[in-house]
Amino acid sequence: MKQLVTFAIALTLLVSCKDKNEEIKLEAGTVDIDTKALAPVSDAMIESAVIYEANIRQYSREGSFDAFTKDIPQLKQLGVKIIWIMPIFPISETNRKATGGDFASLIEDEAERKKMLGSYYAVSDFTKVNPEFGNIEDFRKLVKTAHDNGMYVILDWVPNHTGWDHIWISEHPDYYTKNADGEITDPLNDDGTPVGWADVADLNYDNQEMRKEMIEDMMHWVTEENIDGFRCDVAGSVPLEFWEEAIPQLRAKKELFMLAEAWEHELMKDNLFDMGYGWDTHHVMNYIAKGEKKVEAWDERMNQINSIYGLDDILMNFITNHDENSWNGSVEERMGDASEIMLALSYVAPGMPLIYSGQEYDLKHRLKFFEKDEIPKIKGKSWPLLEKLGKLKNQNDALNGGKQAASYTRTEVANENVLVFNRAKNKSEITFIGNLSKEEQTIDHDLTGMYLDYITNTKIDISIGRLVLKPWEYKILIH
Fold it and tell me: What angle do CA 167, 168, 171 make, to 5 degrees?
C-alpha cells in the first residue's frame, strides 16, 4: 500500500473532485446490468475497489446461492467490485462443531443435533459445493451474475487443514501432520498445544504430492468455474514456498485477485498476494472507539505500515468481518457511537474497505457460526452511507488504495483527539477531519474557502479560526 506519511505544520490542502460538476446526492433506482465481457482483474480496478464478504448461509432465510444472486445488482449501488464468498464446500460430518464449541455428535436430541451445520472451514471436498447452498449450476449463475454486473468473485480457500471426512484422510494419511504416536492431529501451536480447531485435521506441507493436489484443486475453480481469485484462510500458517509455487501457476491461467488472511509482508512480495489483512489497523480502531487510546495510536499504526510494507502492498480495512462479528461482537457492541466515523475512516484511509454481509443492513447481533441464523434485510442508516462512501471510493482518485495509491499526508493539530489528514492523486484531493473521542473538541486551523462537506452534501464556508467538532463528528471535505 503506497503511503507517504508526512507531517505538516498547518492544515492546508483540500480537495477537488475529478469532476466538479459531479452529482453528489445518490438516488435509489434500477441498476443497469452491463452484459459486456468482464475485463480481467487489473491494478486499475483494484485502486478503487470495495470488497464484499458474502456469508451465504446467513445472508438470507433460504441460505442459498440463488437468494444471494438476486441481490448482486444491489451491491453495485454500494460500489462493490470484488465479492469474496466464504467457503462453499461440503462440510465434514465427523467432528462437526456445534454452538458452544462441542461436537454435534455429543448432542443427544436429534432435532437439536441436526441444527448444527458445522464450520465452513472444515472442508470435506475442495472440488464440490455444499448442498446446503444449492448445486454447481446455482453457483455458476452467481458467478455469471456478478460478472454481468462488473464484479469479480473470489473463493475463500482453506489450505491449512481439511475436515476429518476428507478423502485424503483415508487414502493419503501421509498428507497430514502426525503426533508421536503416528496419529493425525488437529492444528497445533508451536509449543505443541492444540490451537482449538478440533474439527479439522492439519495438513503436512512437507509432502510434495499433497501440495500438487492442493494446487490442482485450486486450479479447478479457475479453469472450470471461471472464478477470479482466492481469499486464503490463515495464509501465514502455510509455508511461503507453497505460495511461491502455487500462485504463479494459477496466474498463468488467468489474471487473479489474491487476498491473504495474514499480515506478513513477505506474502505480498514478488506478485504473490495482492492484499493482506489490516488487523492492527482494526484493533487500533476498536481501542480508540472504546476510549482506550487516542489519535497517537492511529499515527503509530500508519508509521508502522510505512516501515513494514512496500509502496505497492495493500491492506484490507474493516470494522467487522465474520470472525469479529461472531466471536468479538457486532459493530455496535465494539464501537458504539464511534461506529460511523470508524466506517468512514476505513474508506478514506489507505487500503481497500470491506463490507461484511449484514453490515449494509445495520446488523446488530452476533451471527451464529455453526448453525443457521439470518441477517436483517431492512435498509436503515448504513445503506445510504455505504452508497456515498462507495461512490467516493470508486470515483475519486484521492482514495486510490492499490499498487499506485494516493498519498497520505498527516496534518498536525494541537488536539490529541482530532485526526486530520489529506490524500491526493492526479489533481484530486480530499481532507478528513475527525473527532476521535466522545467529548466535543475544538481545533485551531488556517483553512479558508468554500468546501463541499461530502457526507452532508452541503457547501461550507470555512474561515481561519476555530472549528468545533461534536463527539465522533467527522468531515470529508472536497474543494
Answer: 85
